Amino acid sequence: MSTTAPTPASSLGAHEDHLRDLGLPMMIVPSTRAREILVRSAGVSAGLAVATSGLSALDRSNDYAVALLERVGEDSPEWEELAVSDPIILLLLLALGLFIAAPILGWFVARVVRRVGPLPGSVIGLASAVALVVAAPLSFEPHDGPGPGTTVLLAAGVLVGTYVGAGSLVRWSARRVRRELGTMGHMVARVLPVLMLAVLFLFFSAEIWQVMVALSWPRTFAVVGVMGLLTVLLVTITTRDDLHDELEARAPGRELRIAERINVLLVPVIATLIQAALFACLVFLFFVFLGWIAIPEATETRWTLWTTEGLGGLLAGVPISVTLVRVSLTLAAFSALNLAAAAASDSAHRARFVRPMIDEVVHGLAAREAYLRARRRG
Prior knowledge:
Layout: H1 12-21, H2 30-35, H3 37-72, H4 79-85, H5 88-113, H6 118-139, H7 148-164, H8 166-203, H9 206-213, H10 217-250, H11 258-294, H12 297-304, H13 322-345, H14 347-377
Helix pairs in contact: 1-14, 3-5, 3-6, 3-7, 6-7, 8-11, 8-13, 9-13, 10-11, 10-13, 11-13, 11-14, 13-14
């Protein structure tokens, strides 16, 4: 939930919460972020400690199941009875319970540490970090689930992520997703008609189906990843240039640390990438639906010269082919790249969708100045 903008008489904590709410945690001075690192990481550490214990229980149940299969064989009539009598089902239920309890406990600990004060909160945060390191290795055998090396790295990642404000950026991104969902109609109306002229031609081209039918899933994700990387690079470069020009014109003379410059750049970049990702999801669903109703199995077989392969696993029985999913993924990634290019070259698109992000950054810099004034007063 968004915080209200602090007044000059507000406390220093109100200014810090407002900066985090704006997605600018690195604007807070390093000493404050270091002092609060145990308190602010307590909830995540406690939740991950329970989740890693759940992974260990799941791994132990898998070991029991493998040993039972080797002993009696999968075709043995005693397999089901032995699986129930052995601790396999009990461990699976324990793992499920731990996975459900992890976010609940993390939320509860995060609420508690904010109410008990800095010193008790730091003690709880330290205990949560220690639990994250030792809970999974001590609960079961050392080879079950995450080992000590993995949990140490995980705890270090939580502390570093808390210091740089990763949690604040995640919460800001979640709020941004909800906000962008409300503006998707305007974006689709502006971008989708022009994009469909090119992308529909590709979708009904036999060549792209012939290429995608022979690709494995790792290669498909590699293609999508390359287009995603190009999208990120394009958005970052164009946003950096726009931000530099706008800040020089509207907020000159503000000296920022390197971390603050990165944070200021991340806010509009992440917002633009959220737009691109939501747009890509919409395009993916559109092409899956269009392919389902417009391209029958016989046409796909004639185009690809391969037997149509259906989805497997939990999606078995869904009347959608693997090739259709791969083609739709590729075209969705291409559409996200096209949207990033439009943000860089189309002045109308920039005025409608990019300029408000720059305004938010300027507002964030004003909040930073108010925070620094509050620190000087304090």
